[in-house]
Specification:
Helix content: 55-70%
Strand content: under 5%
Shape: elongated
Number of domains: 2
Structural class: mainly alpha
Largest sheet: none
Distance between the termini: 53 Å
Number of helices: 6
Length: about 140
């Protein structure tokens, strides 16, 4: 890249929307971009690399706090890879917990849908279950 990019160009090149680029700057995940005399932000190759890193971490389901932790480790060339691995494995455990919760929701909704007649009658076991306010099965 020979010249700095505008936010729109950086968005297209990184796959991160301009709105999210501004948001990541505001959160400190991306350093504040220098400004042209016109006030437009300018992004360089290092910014694009960081934005792609953030996008990939988001694609893997990391939270913004998790991404901040990953970026801090990425920026620290004296880091131990064990720290990165521990963060990744903790995230895997959280994803597994969420997947189990989603599987339970799917099973409950499938069971409720199977008991619903799905016709012109007003009674509906799905709505009755929701109205009962029962806690989800464990």
């Amino acid at each position: 890249m020979s010249r700095p990019l505008t936010i729109g160009e950086a968005a297209r090149a990184s796959g991160v929307s301009a709105k999210m680029i501004r948001h990541y700057e505001a959160l400190g995940l991306l350093p504040p971009a220098p400004r042209r005399p016109s006030g437009y932000r300018e992004y360089d190759e290092a910014d694009l690399h960081r934005l792609r890193f953030i996008r990939r971490a988001r694609d893997l389901g990391f939270t913004l706090d998790g991404i901040a932790d990953l970026l801090a480790l990425w920026d620290d060339r004296t880091r131990a890879s064990a720290d990165v691995k521990a963060l990744a494995l903790a995230h895997v455990a959280e994803l597994r917990r969420r997947a189990e919760a989603i599987a339970g929701m799917i099973a409950t909704l499938e069971r409720l849908a199977a008991t619903c007649h799905g016709d012109d009658r007003p009674d509906c076991p799905i709505l009755e279950d929701l109205a009962a306010g029962r806690p989800p099965p464990r």
